[in-house]
Design brief:
- The chain is of the alpha+beta class.
- It has 17 helices and 14 strands.
- The longest helix has 23 residues.
- Strands 1, 4, 5, 6, 7, 8, 9, 10, 11, 12, 13 and 14 form a 12-stranded mixed beta sheet that branches. Strands 2-3 form a two-stranded antiparallel sheet.
- The chain has a single domain, classed as Alpha-Beta Complex (Cathepsin B, Chain A).
Length: 436
């Protein structure tokens, strides 16, 4: 059989399509309506509404605006709850802009270091193509922890958002162009046998200066003054961001572990996984423990029962109703809408064939159990503002949780002795592009 798509074959397709009676109506509907809106089944989504048998009250919805900093907002919102509890605050928010500044600077340094490392490789090598993806807003829990432990944190009132930190697309495009221009120069220097380090530092200053202009120069010290719930006034003057972190969070972050469920061939079960990402600091790697979905879910429930929200990452682009704040495969009928095709793929193959990935981070803050004490729906705090979902909150079905949740961050105190033992195993190291 010929590998060519022949006109005869297309003619056969056209005749077959002409005999299908329902497609004309479907075509008419899709001509003027958003696909997700047509596929959405409101009555199925309505079944997910209601209170939650286990729920944690958090201190309000944040808004990452038009930026890809969900992982950062979710991490800061975990820490916001820690600080607010210690300070007896009704409302509180940490500055994402402050962390954004150092996130971009560290990613730029990582990019330039990778360019130096791979300078003698062909520009079309896998390592170079991965590096040349450039600097983005994206990141992981581990990256947030590394940044905060190094640079500290500050209240949002001390370093508020700028327009550019809330709308990063154009700024990142310019920065990536500049970095790729720098990459051209650094590759030439290495190939000529010249030391690129001094020039690299000059390049990083250009990034630093641009960020100061776009985001504002990071604060060096500040006054933390507030009234608690009992109207008692507190004042801590001239505290640095690192001192603020040490005082209110300290080493607690080291007790949290990123737990993943990625049943792919390169990630053995019950084993730590490590890799270096374009989202890392140059000197750091990502680390996660790969567990079964049963174990991951059980740990999430334990942490919620312990009164702590759970940072988690999922594929928010699959079976998601943004306006309604619903994540549920049964609330969409894409298969029927496109003529009865079968879209189902197992989790392993979806990941390996790049059909799905963890692309958004949020907080689990509640779960509802059915009559058999099994989870049936999950309450989620998002960072897309109060106008998205139900006053900023989402609900996910158990079916969605099983299929499209890929990572959760768990405090070690909720892990079993066996699971803690897995952390002592030598991590399996994979390439950064294998995680994409």
């Amino acid at each position: 059989m010929s590998k060519e798509l022949s006109l005869k074959t297309i003619d056969t397709f056209a005749k077959k399509y002409g005999k299908e009676t329902q497609v004309e109506v479907l075509n008419a509907a899709m001509a003027k309506t958003e696909l997700a809106d047509l596929a959405f089944v409101p009555m199925n989504a309505a079944k997910l509404r209601g209170d939650f048998s286990l729920e944690i009250k958090t201190r309000g919805i944040t808004a990452q605006e038009k930026s890809g900093r969900c992982w950062m907002f979710a991490a800061l919102n975990i820490m916001r709850e820690m600080i607010a509890e210690k300070c007896n605050l009704k409302e509180f928010e940490l500055s994402a802009n402050y962390i954004t500044f150092f996130d971009k600077l560290e990613k730029a340094n990582n990019f330039l270091e990778s360019i130096i490392l791979y300078a003698n490789e062909d520009v079309n090598s896998q390592a170079m193509l991965y590096t040349l993806d450039g600097v983005s807003d994206g990141g992981f829990w581990g990256m947030a922890v590394d940044l905060i432990k190094k640079y500290g944190i500050v209240p949002k009132s001390v370093q508020p958002e700028s327009y550019q930190s809330n709308h990063t697309d154009k700024f990142l495009k310019l920065i990536n162009h500049l970095l790729k221009k720098d990459a051209m120069e650094l590759r030439a220097m290495v190939k000529a046998g010249k030391d690129p380090r001094k020039r690299k530092e000059e390049m990083l200053y250009e990034i630093y200066r641009a960020e100061c202009i776009a985001f504002g120069e990071p604060v060096k010290s500040f006054h933390f003054e507030y009234r608690d719930k009992e109207e008692k006034f507190h004042s801590i003057r001239n505290i640095t961001p690192k001192e603020f972190y040490d005082r209110f969070i300290g080493m607690e972050l080291d007790e949290y572990v990123a737990v993943i469920n990625e049943p792919t061939a390169n990630k053995p079960l019950n084993t730590p996984i490590t890799f270096h990402s374009t989202a890392n600091m140059a000197e750091k790697n990502m680390y996660a423990l790969n567990l079964s979905m049963k174990d991951l879910e059980s740990l999430c429930i334990k942490q919620l029962k312990g009164g702590e929200p759970v940072w988690f990452a999922c594929d928010v682009l699959s079976y998601s109703a943004r306006k309604e704040g619903v994540l549920d495969p049964d609330s969409f009928r894409y298969e029927e809408l496109l003529g009865g095709v079968d879209f189902y793929m197992p989790k392993k193959e979806r990941l390996e064939l790049r059909s799905s990935a963890a692309n958004h981070a949020m907080l689990l803050c509640g779960v509802n159990f059915d009559e058999k004490k099994q989870p049936e729906r999950w309450k989620i705090e998002n960072s897309w503002g109060k106008d998205v979902g139900e006053n900023g909150y989402y609900v996910a079905s158990e079916k969605y949780f099983q299929e499209f949740v890929y990572e959760a961050v768990i405090h070690k105190k909720y892990m079993t002795k066996t699971q803690l033992g897995y952390l002592k195993k030598k991590p399996v190291e994979i390439a950064g592009w294998e995680e994409e």
